[in-house]
């Protein structure tokens, strides 16, 4: 695990990235934001965060950023060092990730976030894509993007620096370029990558014949111009201005639907696990599933099971079976259907469920299930966790859904559009049906853990698609119930049970293999390059010492920096 000191030194040695990002240091002195968020792009479903978030009475000795790419981490740290808070830094980091990971998230997509002040009430923000006002889903699955509106709503509620200042690091990365990473190079050559970058000369070298390779410079001038417009003309330019005019040419996007887009502020899902309270994304996202999975596994006695053992894997997977069934039966957009959040996250109810549940055998019977188990789909999205010296924590997951926005990848203004509405078909249940302005059930679950004084002590999240609840539950079980260090919990092997098949990162031990045979489950061992098990971005806060701890998930190219305020 990198220490705080080595994290700062490593980042400081990235001269090329620093040279790009420090170009923004000539901006005006930071001041409180005066930019108004358009009424059409924001709505509040519960009291405003300002009324519930008291100022922290004790400062931390550090602040930190954890994100999917070192350059994006630098962007967030630049904002913190200029006097911005955790929300400012998360916004800057999110725009920077959109530049350096164009396959994973961006202004053509959406996302969600948890904002948790020390001693105050956490607030959930949902700025995911929605169905157009005509209620139709285009063949591409493209929904009305919410990313820009979401960043604007967060800035309007919490921001301290000027809006344009927060976009400057990302704009500079896009216009001046950055070295292509190994993971970006892999994504350009894998699954939807070749089709997505076809016709996009910025991703090509050798006279436009071949995709750029790791180490080559990627310059995205059109994306830089788009971000400059958003910075100078404000977020409304995306929904009713210059950029909106470009978007209207895309099947599934129209002027009325763009103008009608609304961000949802709501109460997050909450539930007790061990000595903590887990706070996660509100429906139609699966925060309730993460909490229910943990509570069922805890009631089954997973705290007494050796992490990684056959008993541990069985109990966590049993919790997942309960939670996955609840997602299918209950989860949907709460603006359209009732979701029993309190029931799904009730420890007593889930303890009662645990007494009557056993690990289900594979469908089709023992030895007959291999054909029934589908290969897991690589998990897109990206996650950001930020903590400032006041203890304000942001856990944010953004996405364009499938890598590059799917097989029908579309590009407007230098950015890729989402295929989020494909999630209605992926989970075709009575609770999850398309309608004008409706959000689909999906798997992103930005999460914050609170201590007994309502202070955020851990923020985490991950890409990974359907695997996200299992990824987070494995880390949280190890950290919260077994007391493992964060670095060990994040590095530990991951697994996911689906249709009687346990997908794993390494071959099972003898005891696990024997138990899987008894259960009739098959196994599938996947490689890191398949990108099945995401990349956890997490920061831990010790309010007694004032220290922040991070760790870099080596499954991708994630990084973190913790430094003095």
Automatic annotation (TrEMBL):
Chain intervals with Low complexity compositional bias: 32-54
Highest rank taxon of the organism: Bacteria
Region Disordered: start-end pairs: 32-55
Pfam family, one: G_glu_transpept
Annotated signal sequence range: 1-31
Keywords: Hydrolase, Signal, Transferase, Zymogen
Gene3D superfamilies with a match to the protein in the record: 1.10.246.130, 3.60.20.40
Homology family: Belongs to the gamma-glutamyltransferase family.
Identification of the protein by name: Gamma-glutamyltransferase
Organism: Georgenia daeguensis
Gene: ggt_3
